[in-house]
Amino acid sequence: MKNVIVVCLVLMTLQVSAQGKKWVELFDGKSLNNWKINESPVSFRVENGSIIIEGPRGHLFYDGPVGDHNFKDFEVQATVMTFPGSNSGLYVCTDFLPVGFPSVGYEVQVNNSHTDWRRTASLYNIVDTSERFVKDEEWFDLNVTVKGNRIVTKINGVTVVDYTQPESPLRSKGQEQRLIKAGTIALQAHDPKSKVAYKSIKVRSL
Fold first, then answer.
1. Which of 2, 28, 124, 138 is the Cys-Cys partner for 107 at CB 3.0 to 4.6 Å?
2. Is residue 171 part of a domain?
3. The domain containing residue 167 runs over which residues?
């Protein structure tokens, strides 16, 4: 009898652990509920089940109940499509700000053909790559794992950046807050000529 109880407890523990690691979708496919725009609301719309980002500079911050929009030791995966000449970004470990580019946390680049040479999955201005792994007008999965002092970015399961933040990282002026911390997720509208679609943004705790 004791053995049966022990087995049941182990199974329950494993089940709870597994539930804690389930993917949770942050975008309902219909609206921008639980998301907060800091500027240029015209740059963000929902169309055919996707968030379409097109227009002047602005940022869309997750502001909903999942994780109380304050993620630490987590994984986020976005399903993305870029269009020719477009530029965007997926911010992690960031905070809402009313105007401007987020200064807190890290930007994971979304750019397959923009004039900026830093390509998709670069950890912007920290660990950059000029290699293009995917083409415009094709859906791809962009995955970012943040655990402890380490960030890993992947495109369609292939690792692009594996960065361990040093104890006292050197940062240029204006980038002092490019650090791993508990924070939210944001999507970037970079410029009026850029168009990018996100049809899924999901997270899971680690």
1. 124
2. yes
3. 24-205
What separation in angstroms does the CA of 156 have from each of 35, 126, 128, 139, 141?
A: 25, 22, 18, 10, 5
For residue 152, the surrounding DSSP H or E stretch is strand 150-155
Q: Each residue of 82-124: pLDDT tens digit?
A: 999 999 999 999 999 999 999 999 999 999 999 999 999 999 9
Q: Which string of b and e fits 69-86 if b means at least 16 CB within 10 Å?
A: bebeebbbbbbbbbbeeb
State yes or no: pLDDT of 19 exceeds 90. no
Lowest mean pLDDT among 20-24, 163-167, 173-177: 20-24
**What's the angle, vertex CA 78, arms to CA 75 and CA 135, rounded to 5?**
130
pTM of the model: 0.89
Count of domains forming the chain = 1
CA torsion 89-90-91-97 (nearest 10°) is 70
* In contact, 180 and 146? CB cutoff 8 Å: yes
Average pLDDT over every residue of 125-131: 97
Task: Round to whole Å and give the CA distance between 51 and 28.
Answer: 10
Closest CA to 20 of 66, 65, 85, 56: 66
